[in-house]
Design goal:
Largest sheet: 9 strands, antiparallel
Number of domains: 2
Oligomer: single chain
CATH class of the largest domain: Mainly Beta
Strand content: over 45%
Radius of gyration: 26 Å
Shape: elongated
Number of strands: 33
Number of helices: 2
Distance between the termini: 68 Å
Structural class: mainly beta
Helix content: under 10%
CATH architecture of the largest domain: Sandwich
Protein backbone atom coordinates (compact mmCIF):
# COMPACT_ATOMS: atom_id res chain seq x y z
CA UNK A 1 0.00 0.00 0.00
CA UNK A 2 1.22 3.51 -0.81
CA UNK A 3 0.02 6.63 0.97
CA UNK A 4 0.46 10.23 -0.19
CA UNK A 5 0.95 13.22 2.12
CA UNK A 6 -0.03 11.41 5.29
CA UNK A 7 0.16 14.06 8.02
CA UNK A 8 -2.16 12.35 10.49
CA UNK A 9 -1.44 8.99 12.09
CA UNK A 10 -3.08 5.91 10.63
CA UNK A 11 -4.89 3.54 12.96
CA UNK A 12 -5.06 -0.20 12.19
CA UNK A 13 -7.44 -2.63 13.89
CA UNK A 14 -6.36 -6.23 13.30
CA UNK A 15 -9.07 -8.60 12.14
CA UNK A 16 -8.02 -11.70 10.17
CA UNK A 17 -8.25 -10.91 6.47
CA UNK A 18 -9.70 -7.46 7.19
CA UNK A 19 -8.55 -4.02 8.27
CA UNK A 20 -10.33 -0.85 9.23
CA UNK A 21 -8.08 2.04 8.30
CA UNK A 22 -8.47 5.58 9.55
CA UNK A 23 -7.33 7.85 6.71
CA UNK A 24 -6.48 11.53 6.87
CA UNK A 25 -8.62 13.51 4.43
CA UNK A 26 -5.68 13.97 2.04
CA UNK A 27 -4.62 10.30 2.07
CA UNK A 28 -4.76 8.24 -1.10
CA UNK A 29 -4.65 4.51 -1.79
CA UNK A 30 -2.84 3.88 -5.09
CA UNK A 31 -3.58 7.47 -6.04
CA UNK A 32 -7.31 7.28 -5.24
CA UNK A 33 -8.68 9.42 -2.45
CA UNK A 34 -10.23 7.55 0.47
CA UNK A 35 -12.64 8.85 3.07
CA UNK A 36 -12.16 8.99 6.84
CA UNK A 37 -12.48 5.50 8.45
CA UNK A 38 -12.74 3.77 5.07
CA UNK A 39 -12.62 -0.02 5.22
CA UNK A 40 -10.29 -2.12 3.10
CA UNK A 41 -10.38 -5.87 2.39
CA UNK A 42 -8.40 -8.09 0.04
CA UNK A 43 -10.33 -10.87 -1.68
CA UNK A 44 -7.97 -13.60 -2.95
CA UNK A 45 -9.34 -14.86 -6.26
CA UNK A 46 -7.92 -18.34 -5.71
CA UNK A 47 -10.75 -19.04 -3.28
CA UNK A 48 -13.47 -16.66 -4.45
CA UNK A 49 -13.56 -16.71 -8.27
CA UNK A 50 -14.71 -19.06 -11.02
CA UNK A 51 -13.93 -19.39 -14.70
CA UNK A 52 -17.07 -18.76 -16.76
CA UNK A 53 -16.19 -20.32 -20.16
CA UNK A 54 -15.49 -23.85 -18.95
CA UNK A 55 -15.38 -25.49 -22.39
CA UNK A 56 -12.46 -23.47 -23.77
CA UNK A 57 -8.79 -23.09 -22.87
CA UNK A 58 -6.92 -19.86 -22.30
CA UNK A 59 -7.45 -18.93 -18.67
CA UNK A 60 -7.59 -20.71 -15.32
CA UNK A 61 -8.10 -20.28 -11.59
CA UNK A 62 -5.51 -21.70 -9.22
CA UNK A 63 -4.30 -20.84 -5.72
CA UNK A 64 -2.57 -17.73 -7.10
CA UNK A 65 -5.75 -16.40 -8.72
CA UNK A 66 -6.40 -15.85 -12.43
CA UNK A 67 -3.52 -17.16 -14.56
CA UNK A 68 -2.72 -17.93 -18.22
CA UNK A 69 -5.59 -15.73 -19.41
CA UNK A 70 -5.17 -15.58 -23.18
CA UNK A 71 -8.66 -16.23 -24.58
CA UNK A 72 -11.18 -13.39 -24.95
CA UNK A 73 -14.02 -15.93 -24.66
CA UNK A 74 -12.92 -16.71 -21.12
CA UNK A 75 -14.15 -14.48 -18.32
CA UNK A 76 -14.22 -14.77 -14.54
CA UNK A 77 -16.68 -14.06 -11.75
CA UNK A 78 -15.84 -13.44 -8.09
CA UNK A 79 -18.37 -13.29 -5.26
CA UNK A 80 -18.48 -11.34 -2.02
CA UNK A 81 -21.34 -10.85 0.44
CA UNK A 82 -21.89 -7.42 1.98
CA UNK A 83 -23.83 -6.86 5.20
CA UNK A 84 -24.15 -3.09 4.68
CA UNK A 85 -25.40 -0.84 1.92
CA UNK A 86 -23.21 1.90 0.49
CA UNK A 87 -20.36 2.74 -1.84
CA UNK A 88 -17.67 0.29 -2.89
CA UNK A 89 -14.32 1.25 -4.43
CA UNK A 90 -12.56 -1.54 -6.30
CA UNK A 91 -8.94 -2.30 -7.23
CA UNK A 92 -7.50 -5.24 -9.19
CA UNK A 93 -4.11 -6.54 -8.08
CA UNK A 94 -2.50 -7.72 -11.32
CA UNK A 95 0.40 -7.87 -13.70
CA UNK A 96 0.49 -8.17 -17.48
CA UNK A 97 3.08 -8.68 -20.21
CA UNK A 98 1.77 -5.86 -22.40
CA UNK A 99 -1.04 -3.34 -22.35
CA UNK A 100 -4.55 -4.62 -21.70
CA UNK A 101 -8.05 -3.24 -21.40
CA UNK A 102 -10.20 -5.02 -18.82
CA UNK A 103 -13.89 -4.53 -17.99
CA UNK A 104 -15.24 -5.08 -14.47
CA UNK A 105 -19.01 -5.35 -13.98
CA UNK A 106 -20.90 -5.37 -10.68
CA UNK A 107 -24.15 -3.99 -9.28
CA UNK A 108 -25.55 -3.12 -12.74
CA UNK A 109 -22.49 -1.02 -13.62
CA UNK A 110 -19.41 -1.66 -15.80
CA UNK A 111 -16.04 0.06 -15.46
CA UNK A 112 -13.28 -0.32 -18.04
CA UNK A 113 -9.60 0.26 -17.26
CA UNK A 114 -6.33 0.19 -19.17
CA UNK A 115 -3.55 -1.66 -17.35
CA UNK A 116 0.15 -2.38 -17.86
CA UNK A 117 3.19 -3.43 -15.85
CA UNK A 118 4.86 -6.81 -15.38
CA UNK A 119 4.91 -6.62 -11.57
CA UNK A 120 1.87 -7.09 -9.37
CA UNK A 121 0.31 -3.78 -8.38
CA UNK A 122 -3.13 -2.39 -7.59
CA UNK A 123 -5.14 -0.79 -10.40
CA UNK A 124 -8.15 1.30 -9.44
CA UNK A 125 -11.28 0.35 -11.37
CA UNK A 126 -13.93 2.69 -10.02
CA UNK A 127 -16.77 3.08 -7.56
CA UNK A 128 -19.92 0.96 -7.34
CA UNK A 129 -23.09 1.37 -5.27
CA UNK A 130 -24.65 -1.44 -3.21
CA UNK A 131 -28.30 -0.50 -2.70
CA UNK A 132 -28.99 -3.70 -0.75
CA UNK A 133 -27.16 -6.29 1.33
CA UNK A 134 -26.29 -9.78 0.09
CA UNK A 135 -24.02 -11.36 -2.48
CA UNK A 136 -22.37 -9.32 -5.23
CA UNK A 137 -21.08 -10.91 -8.42
CA UNK A 138 -17.96 -9.19 -9.77
CA UNK A 139 -17.41 -10.09 -13.44
CA UNK A 140 -13.99 -9.63 -15.07
CA UNK A 141 -13.72 -9.65 -18.89
CA UNK A 142 -10.90 -8.99 -21.32
CA UNK A 143 -11.46 -6.33 -24.00
CA UNK A 144 -8.08 -6.04 -25.70
CA UNK A 145 -4.39 -6.87 -25.19
CA UNK A 146 -1.03 -6.32 -26.84
CA UNK A 147 0.80 -9.09 -24.95
CA UNK A 148 0.22 -12.81 -24.70
CA UNK A 149 -2.12 -12.53 -21.72
CA UNK A 150 -4.76 -10.09 -20.57
CA UNK A 151 -3.41 -10.23 -17.02
CA UNK A 152 -2.58 -12.44 -14.07
CA UNK A 153 -4.90 -11.20 -11.31
CA UNK A 154 -4.23 -12.28 -7.74
CA UNK A 155 -6.90 -10.43 -5.80
CA UNK A 156 -9.55 -7.75 -5.64
CA UNK A 157 -9.37 -4.99 -3.05
CA UNK A 158 -12.59 -3.37 -1.86
CA UNK A 159 -13.07 -0.24 0.20
CA UNK A 160 -16.02 1.94 1.13
CA UNK A 161 -19.04 2.30 3.36
CA UNK A 162 -20.52 -1.04 2.26
CA UNK A 163 -17.41 -2.92 3.42
CA UNK A 164 -17.06 -3.91 7.07
CA UNK A 165 -16.10 -6.78 9.36
CA UNK A 166 -19.24 -8.71 8.37
CA UNK A 167 -18.32 -8.82 4.68
CA UNK A 168 -18.20 -12.54 3.78
CA UNK A 169 -15.61 -14.20 1.54
CA UNK A 170 -12.88 -16.87 1.76
CA UNK A 171 -10.10 -14.94 3.47
CA UNK A 172 -7.11 -17.25 3.02
CA UNK A 173 -6.00 -20.76 2.09
CA UNK A 174 -5.21 -21.96 5.60
CA UNK A 175 -6.59 -25.49 5.91
CA UNK A 176 -7.05 -25.61 2.10
CA UNK A 177 -10.02 -23.26 2.34
CA UNK A 178 -9.64 -22.13 -1.27
CA UNK A 179 -10.70 -25.68 -2.19
CA UNK A 180 -13.43 -25.97 0.46
CA UNK A 181 -14.67 -22.45 -0.16
CA UNK A 182 -15.09 -23.02 -3.88
CA UNK A 183 -16.96 -26.27 -3.16
CA UNK A 184 -19.36 -24.31 -0.98
CA UNK A 185 -20.86 -25.03 2.44
CA UNK A 186 -22.22 -28.46 3.32
CA UNK A 187 -25.53 -28.49 5.20
CA UNK A 188 -26.90 -31.12 7.59
CA UNK A 189 -29.99 -32.29 9.44
CA UNK A 190 -29.39 -34.08 12.74
CA UNK A 191 -32.43 -36.16 13.69
CA UNK A 192 -33.63 -36.37 17.29
CA UNK A 193 -33.80 -40.03 18.39
CA UNK A 194 -36.14 -41.39 21.07
CA UNK A 195 -34.58 -41.74 24.52
CA UNK A 196 -33.38 -45.16 25.72
CA UNK A 197 -34.00 -46.91 22.40
CA UNK A 198 -31.62 -49.38 20.75
CA UNK A 199 -32.54 -48.38 17.22
CA UNK A 200 -31.48 -50.94 14.61
CA UNK A 201 -33.37 -49.71 11.52
CA UNK A 202 -33.43 -46.26 9.90
CA UNK A 203 -35.76 -45.41 7.00
CA UNK A 204 -35.73 -42.15 5.00
CA UNK A 205 -37.28 -40.86 1.77
CA UNK A 206 -35.38 -38.50 -0.57
CA UNK A 207 -36.64 -36.29 -3.38
CA UNK A 208 -34.38 -34.05 -5.47
CA UNK A 209 -36.59 -31.40 -7.10
CA UNK A 210 -36.42 -31.18 -10.89
CA UNK A 211 -33.46 -29.04 -11.94
CA UNK A 212 -31.56 -29.56 -8.68
CA UNK A 213 -29.62 -32.68 -9.71
CA UNK A 214 -26.48 -30.60 -10.18
CA UNK A 215 -23.21 -32.31 -11.14
CA UNK A 216 -21.07 -32.95 -8.06
CA UNK A 217 -23.98 -33.21 -5.61
CA UNK A 218 -24.25 -35.81 -2.85
CA UNK A 219 -27.76 -36.14 -1.42
CA UNK A 220 -26.97 -38.18 1.68
CA UNK A 221 -30.07 -39.82 3.19
CA UNK A 222 -29.01 -42.18 5.99
CA UNK A 223 -26.03 -40.85 7.89
CA UNK A 224 -24.87 -42.52 11.11
CA UNK A 225 -21.96 -42.29 13.50
CA UNK A 226 -19.67 -44.50 11.41
CA UNK A 227 -20.69 -43.80 7.81
CA UNK A 228 -23.22 -42.60 5.27
CA UNK A 229 -25.65 -43.77 2.57
CA UNK A 230 -27.19 -41.70 -0.23
CA UNK A 231 -27.14 -40.81 -3.93
CA UNK A 232 -24.75 -38.79 -6.08
CA UNK A 233 -24.43 -37.07 -9.45
CA UNK A 234 -20.97 -38.21 -10.52
CA UNK A 235 -20.88 -37.13 -14.18
CA UNK A 236 -23.30 -36.06 -16.92
CA UNK A 237 -23.92 -39.76 -17.63
CA UNK A 238 -23.25 -41.52 -14.32
CA UNK A 239 -25.04 -41.56 -10.96
CA UNK A 240 -24.32 -43.63 -7.83
CA UNK A 241 -26.15 -45.05 -4.86
CA UNK A 242 -23.25 -44.81 -2.39
CA UNK A 243 -22.75 -46.53 0.98
CA UNK A 244 -19.54 -46.19 3.02
CA UNK A 245 -18.35 -47.17 6.50
CA UNK A 246 -15.28 -45.61 8.14
CA UNK A 247 -12.58 -47.75 9.67
CA UNK A 248 -11.94 -47.21 13.42
CA UNK A 249 -8.31 -46.52 12.42
CA UNK A 250 -7.93 -42.79 11.74
CA UNK A 251 -6.18 -42.13 8.43
CA UNK A 252 -6.84 -40.68 4.99
CA UNK A 253 -4.85 -43.49 3.37
CA UNK A 254 -6.63 -46.88 3.30
CA UNK A 255 -3.28 -48.59 2.72
CA UNK A 256 -2.27 -47.65 6.27
CA UNK A 257 -5.18 -49.43 7.95
CA UNK A 258 -4.03 -52.50 9.96
CA UNK A 259 -5.68 -55.77 8.97
CA UNK A 260 -7.52 -56.09 12.27
CA UNK A 261 -9.13 -52.65 11.76
CA UNK A 262 -10.20 -52.99 8.14
CA UNK A 263 -13.86 -52.91 7.14
CA UNK A 264 -14.91 -56.37 5.91
CA UNK A 265 -17.48 -56.79 3.14
CA UNK A 266 -19.96 -59.53 4.10
CA UNK A 267 -22.26 -59.41 1.06
CA UNK A 268 -23.27 -57.11 -1.75
CA UNK A 269 -26.12 -56.67 -4.18
CA UNK A 270 -26.27 -57.27 -7.92
CA UNK A 271 -24.18 -54.79 -9.95
CA UNK A 272 -22.73 -53.26 -6.76
CA UNK A 273 -19.04 -52.31 -6.73
CA UNK A 274 -17.12 -52.59 -3.45
CA UNK A 275 -13.68 -51.47 -2.34
CA UNK A 276 -11.91 -48.98 -0.13
CA UNK A 277 -11.93 -45.18 0.02
CA UNK A 278 -9.64 -42.49 1.41
CA UNK A 279 -8.94 -38.74 1.56
CA UNK A 280 -11.78 -37.97 4.03
CA UNK A 281 -11.04 -40.72 6.49
CA UNK A 282 -10.77 -44.26 5.14
CA UNK A 283 -12.81 -47.43 5.13
CA UNK A 284 -15.07 -49.69 3.09
CA UNK A 285 -17.13 -48.33 0.23
CA UNK A 286 -19.84 -49.65 -2.06
CA UNK A 287 -21.85 -48.13 -4.87
CA UNK A 288 -24.45 -49.15 -7.38
CA UNK A 289 -24.69 -47.47 -10.77
CA UNK A 290 -28.28 -46.29 -11.03
CA UNK A 291 -29.69 -43.51 -13.19
CA UNK A 292 -32.05 -42.02 -10.61
CA UNK A 293 -34.25 -39.13 -11.74
CA UNK A 294 -34.89 -35.71 -10.25
CA UNK A 295 -38.52 -35.35 -9.21
CA UNK A 296 -38.87 -39.00 -8.13
CA UNK A 297 -38.91 -40.12 -4.49
CA UNK A 298 -36.50 -42.86 -3.40
CA UNK A 299 -36.36 -44.81 -0.14
CA UNK A 300 -33.24 -45.70 1.85
CA UNK A 301 -33.09 -48.35 4.57
CA UNK A 302 -30.21 -49.00 6.98
CA UNK A 303 -29.72 -51.75 9.56
CA UNK A 304 -27.04 -51.54 12.27
CA UNK A 305 -26.49 -54.19 14.96
CA UNK A 306 -23.57 -55.46 17.09
CA UNK A 307 -22.70 -59.10 16.34
CA UNK A 308 -21.62 -59.92 19.91
CA UNK A 309 -17.99 -60.41 18.88
CA UNK A 310 -16.70 -56.82 19.16
CA UNK A 311 -17.92 -56.06 15.62
CA UNK A 312 -20.97 -54.20 14.32
CA UNK A 313 -22.71 -55.09 11.05
CA UNK A 314 -24.03 -52.33 8.76
CA UNK A 315 -26.41 -53.26 5.91
CA UNK A 316 -28.25 -51.04 3.42
CA UNK A 317 -31.08 -51.36 0.90
CA UNK A 318 -32.40 -48.97 -1.77
CA UNK A 319 -35.95 -48.77 -3.18
CA UNK A 320 -36.87 -47.10 -6.48
CA UNK A 321 -40.52 -47.02 -7.61
CA UNK A 322 -39.62 -48.16 -11.13
CA UNK A 323 -37.83 -51.22 -9.73
CA UNK A 324 -40.64 -51.89 -7.23
CA UNK A 325 -38.46 -53.94 -4.92
CA UNK A 326 -35.76 -53.40 -2.33
CA UNK A 327 -32.22 -53.63 -3.73
CA UNK A 328 -29.42 -54.82 -1.45
CA UNK A 329 -26.45 -52.47 -1.65
CA UNK A 330 -23.96 -54.04 0.76
CA UNK A 331 -23.27 -55.36 4.25
CA UNK A 332 -20.07 -54.41 6.08
CA UNK A 333 -18.57 -55.54 9.38
CA UNK A 334 -16.72 -52.88 11.42
CA UNK A 335 -14.20 -54.18 13.99
CA UNK A 336 -13.69 -52.79 17.50
CA UNK A 337 -17.26 -51.49 17.43
CA UNK A 338 -20.32 -52.30 19.55
CA UNK A 339 -23.13 -49.92 18.72
CA UNK A 340 -26.67 -49.52 17.52
CA UNK A 341 -27.74 -46.53 15.40
CA UNK A 342 -26.42 -43.22 16.68
CA UNK A 343 -25.99 -39.67 15.38
CA UNK A 344 -28.59 -40.11 12.63
CA UNK A 345 -28.39 -37.36 10.04
CA UNK A 346 -28.78 -36.33 6.41
CA UNK A 347 -26.66 -33.88 4.48
CA UNK A 348 -26.23 -32.11 1.17
CA UNK A 349 -22.79 -31.38 -0.23
CA UNK A 350 -21.11 -30.35 -3.46
CA UNK A 351 -17.87 -32.26 -4.11
CA UNK A 352 -16.87 -30.44 -7.34
CA UNK A 353 -15.32 -26.97 -6.73
CA UNK A 354 -16.24 -25.81 -10.25
CA UNK A 355 -19.92 -26.42 -9.43
CA UNK A 356 -19.89 -24.23 -6.32
CA UNK A 357 -21.71 -21.42 -8.13
CA UNK A 358 -24.87 -23.49 -8.73
CA UNK A 359 -27.66 -23.84 -6.17
CA UNK A 360 -29.09 -27.27 -5.38
CA UNK A 361 -31.89 -28.42 -3.03
CA UNK A 362 -33.11 -31.75 -1.63
CA UNK A 363 -36.18 -32.86 0.33
CA UNK A 364 -36.06 -35.46 3.15
CA UNK A 365 -39.35 -36.86 4.43
CA UNK A 366 -40.98 -39.63 6.47
CA UNK A 367 -38.06 -40.62 8.71
CA UNK A 368 -38.59 -43.68 10.95
CA UNK A 369 -36.50 -45.89 13.25
CA UNK A 370 -37.24 -49.38 14.54
CA UNK A 371 -35.90 -51.56 17.33
CA UNK A 372 -35.05 -55.27 17.15
CA UNK A 373 -38.76 -56.21 17.27
CA UNK A 374 -39.45 -54.16 14.15
CA UNK A 375 -41.60 -51.61 15.99
CA UNK A 376 -41.42 -48.32 14.07
CA UNK A 377 -41.17 -44.85 15.64
CA UNK A 378 -41.45 -41.72 13.51
CA UNK A 379 -38.76 -39.01 13.69
CA UNK A 380 -39.99 -35.49 12.93
CA UNK A 381 -37.46 -33.18 14.62
CA UNK A 382 -34.06 -32.22 13.22
CA UNK A 383 -31.30 -29.73 13.99
CA UNK A 384 -29.82 -27.70 11.11
CA UNK A 385 -26.02 -27.41 11.05
CA UNK A 386 -23.31 -26.37 8.59
CA UNK A 387 -19.68 -27.26 7.97
CA UNK A 388 -16.65 -25.13 8.80
CA UNK A 389 -16.88 -23.18 5.52
CA UNK A 390 -20.20 -21.81 6.72
CA UNK A 391 -19.33 -21.65 10.41
CA UNK A 392 -16.31 -19.42 9.71
CA UNK A 393 -18.52 -17.09 7.65
CA UNK A 394 -16.55 -17.72 4.45
CA UNK A 395 -19.70 -18.81 2.56
CA UNK A 396 -23.23 -17.93 3.67
CA UNK A 397 -25.28 -19.53 0.90
CA UNK A 398 -26.80 -22.24 3.07
CA UNK A 399 -30.37 -22.93 4.17
CA UNK A 400 -32.74 -25.52 5.56
CA UNK A 401 -36.27 -25.79 6.85
CA UNK A 402 -39.70 -27.26 6.22
CA UNK A 403 -41.36 -27.21 2.78
CA UNK A 404 -44.55 -29.06 1.80
CA UNK A 405 -44.38 -31.03 5.02
CA UNK A 406 -40.81 -32.27 4.46
CA UNK A 407 -37.38 -31.18 5.67
CA UNK A 408 -35.27 -29.50 3.01
CA UNK A 409 -31.61 -28.54 2.60
CA UNK A 410 -30.20 -26.00 0.14
CA UNK A 411 -26.67 -24.80 -0.58
CA UNK A 412 -24.30 -23.07 -3.03
CA UNK A 413 -25.06 -20.57 -5.78
CA UNK A 414 -24.65 -17.42 -3.64
CA UNK A 415 -28.30 -16.90 -2.68
CA UNK A 416 -28.87 -14.28 -0.02
CA UNK A 417 -31.24 -15.66 2.62
CA UNK A 418 -29.49 -18.06 4.98
CA UNK A 419 -30.69 -20.18 7.91
CA UNK A 420 -29.29 -19.73 11.38
CA UNK A 421 -27.10 -22.61 12.49
CA UNK A 422 -28.55 -24.97 15.16
CA UNK A 423 -32.14 -24.09 14.29
CA UNK A 424 -34.51 -26.93 15.28
CA UNK A 425 -37.13 -27.90 12.68
CA UNK A 426 -40.24 -29.97 13.32
CA UNK A 427 -42.14 -31.37 10.34
CA UNK A 428 -45.75 -32.62 10.49
CA UNK A 429 -46.12 -36.29 11.40
CA UNK A 430 -47.14 -38.48 8.47
CA UNK A 431 -48.15 -41.57 10.40
CA UNK A 432 -47.13 -43.64 7.36
CA UNK A 433 -44.70 -46.23 8.66
CA UNK A 434 -42.41 -47.93 6.10
CA UNK A 435 -44.12 -50.49 3.88
CA UNK A 436 -41.37 -53.09 4.08
CA UNK A 437 -41.28 -56.68 5.30
CA UNK A 438 -37.98 -56.72 7.20
CA UNK A 439 -37.92 -60.55 7.25
CA UNK A 440 -37.93 -60.78 3.44
CA UNK A 441 -35.21 -58.30 2.56
CA UNK A 442 -32.53 -59.68 0.20
Amino acid sequence: MKFNKAFICILFFAIPGFSIIGFAASNKYNGIKATVTDSLITIPLGGNAWRVAKDTTGGDINEKGIVNWTDKQVSFTAYVRVASKGKIKLWLNLKTDGKSTIAVSALKATKTIAVSGNNFSDHYDGEFLATDTGYIAIQIKGISKTGNTYADISSIKLSGTAIDAKTAYVKNNEGQFFYWGRRGPSVHLGYVLPDKMNAEWFYNEVTVPVGNDVLGSYFMADGFGEGYFGMQVNSPTERHILFSVWSPFKTDNPGQIPEDQKIAMLKKGTNVHTGEFGNEGSGGQSYMLYNWKAGNTYSFLLHVKPDGNNHTVYTTWFFAPVLNQWQLIASFSRPQTNTYLQHLHSFLENFEPEQGTITRKVMFNNQWVADSSGKWTELNKARFTIDNTGAKGYRMDYAGGIMNGAFYLKNCGFFNNYTKRNTIFERPLTGKSPDVDLSKLP
